[in-house]
Amino acid sequence: MPAASVMPVTDVDTPLDAPRAFASADTLTRSEMLLAPVCWPRPSRLREPLRAPTKKASAGLQALGLHTVGDLLEHLPRDSREARTVAELRVGEQATVAVEVRSIAARPVRKRGMRPLVEAWVADATGAMRAVFFNQPWLVEKYPEGTRLVLHGKAGQRGDFGVAHHAVGTELGVAQDAPPADARAIVAHYPATEGVSSTQILTLMQGSRGALADVVEPLPAALRSSERLPDRAAALTAMHFPERAEEVEAGRERVAFEELLLTQLVFLRRRARRRALTGAPVLNEPPAWSARWLEQGLPFTLTHGQQSAITTIEADLARPCPMQRLLMGEVGSGKTVVALWAMLRAVEHGRQAALMAPTETLAEQHFATVQRLLGGEQLACALLTGSTKATRRADTLGKLESGELQLIVGTHALIEPDVRFRSLAVAVVDEQHRFGVRQRAALEDKDPTHPAHVLHMTATPIPRTLALSEHGDLDVTALRELPHGRRPIRTRLIAGERSRARAYEHLREQLQEGRQAYVVCPLVEEAQADGAAALVGEGGPPGEGDLRAATAEVERLSHGELKGHKLMLLHGQMRSKEKQEAMAKFAAGEVDVLVATTVIEVGVDVPNATVMLVENAERFGISQLHQLRGRVGRGEHASTCLLVGPPGAARLRALAEHTDGFRLAEIDLELRKEGELIGTRQSGLGQFRVACLPDDAELLEGARRQAEWIVDRDPELKAPEHQLLGEALDDTFGAEAFEPIPA
Ligand code: ADP
Ligand code: MG
User: Fold this and answer.
1) For the chain, which domains are there?
2) Which one of 306, 310, 330, 333 would you pick to mutate in the ligand 1 pocket, going by the greatest count of ligand atoms within 8 A of its CB?
């Protein structure tokens, strides 16, 4: 007897969807048959096209990317709201109510062209009202007395409720029996669009509810039980048709976990793949030059953090697998020294090294640092930026390709296709978060057969949640301490004229003692200001709250509060040469005060500068202000950061209270998330469909743990219990998820 006929198959008409093991049924062993599921999902049902009630709705569904029943079930509610009760409705209010029909009738249409109306008396436990439906005379038949409905609409003047959208409630999780007065129906609200409303989507969802049984469960049973997660179908049911509020969250967490697990699997597989790669230059000669430089070339001793980062990187570079390490360190923690050391390691092996920075100012600064720090060493080093002259550029490119140049420092100009290296061994990307993924990759892949070792650096501290979610495939090293002898920067909030006057006083005192200062403005020129408000008081000092412009401020201060001191302007729109000159003069101490925009945010390093005054500080983000503040406090003198802004701004308070960048980044994340809720989406956080960081940090940790466990044991996801997971990965990330890991 063919095995198929004895298998408890509930759905024999779709054999193609049956798990592969069952496709050739006559080869099944007895034990496989015993393992056969009593019924299995019938994914073909999920692939059925979605049937929309109207043409308009059909267009709307298309626009939302909903083509099949499966798509629909994956269209998750934006939120779920408890329905309002009839007694609570206020005139003019838009609301959703869950009610029962007491009576229903069409109102006769008296005039031609008048819209046919259906009126129903509807009630919940708190009261009754008259619901009015427009243009749908058939509803009289469809919603007989006793039908439980979910209505969305607007409460009108005379106790009417004008219905915009409606759906039968019984299948929406609205209890069959009349609920007790305090229990409320919970109604899912969906992202909707023109042509199809949230309530219409809910109605469609209702019609497709049966297909939830066909939803595939990608998570292995053991994982689900150890993480205490419901199965996928149950989670979706809870989200679409909640009976209790807690269910919605449990369902959401289940879906979020899966999402996080899949991304971690991709990251970890990518990392495993990278770790299995070879072909990177093996830099394993005993250190000579680099060691001598560390011992004799530096005017200071390394911090523990720098030392251990160097040890780690030394081991990375000695392997044929290309390094991909993120060096994360507080502003001023001394990342550059670590980077330069890694670059010297390349050079002492007869190879080349490159350092890429996001701005010209920073590249120039790095170039100067390289020359200063490597003062005693004979090294061929060049600078390449967007404003490098053509003849110079051609010469530099030639020397890079011949190998004559050992070190190069530059901007994005380094990743132009015609920039070729003879043998690039170490590439450093400073302020890596300022570059796109592709730009970073372009540098690594300069020579595809011999990938370079890459050190990514960032001074924007990344909380662990973000590190896992965005940089899950990099190895991470953190420099958590500042060099010895640094004095913490005091941060003061300046609000109002009196405290502004005191701020200038402090600034003048510092200048008198021979120190230098920065004044940072949000704008380059006044014309940039949005709205006329910023121009009020032209000629005189701008009023409180007006946006200050660097060009105007440098004029104003040199004739006003800072008269007699040498002031200079620095902003991004200046010509590269002018910027260079301004920086050089400031660094040499010829200029007392640099009046600048945020061009100085990264990298600028003048230890004698001890005061920074930031105008309109409320206009900047926490991380940005923290970076800016890091421009002072870089030498032996005590430094101050003066933030001018409205009193009570949460971000500014956080900066005044905390100096730890990691803590600030966490606060930033929390505040930004609140910002998201009111509509200002920021990059980096909105990448997940369901998961929400940092709230779901715990889920993320769990997902990371499970992903590590899986990738360690079954990197190709070949084990039977991982097969559906592999398919989900493939569906979500496509081919990239499944490039094999070389043995
Ligand atoms: P960042 O991590 O912000 O890039 P830098 O590498 O620019 O920091 O270093 C900040 C300043 O600290 C520089 O002037 C650098 O020369 C100095 N520095 C670096 N390491 C040490 C150290 N171990 N002790 C004292 N000063 C140091
Ligand atoms: Mg730096």
Assistant:
1) 84-184 (2.40.50.140), 289-317+334-458 (3.40.50.300), 489-658 (3.40.50.300)
2) 333
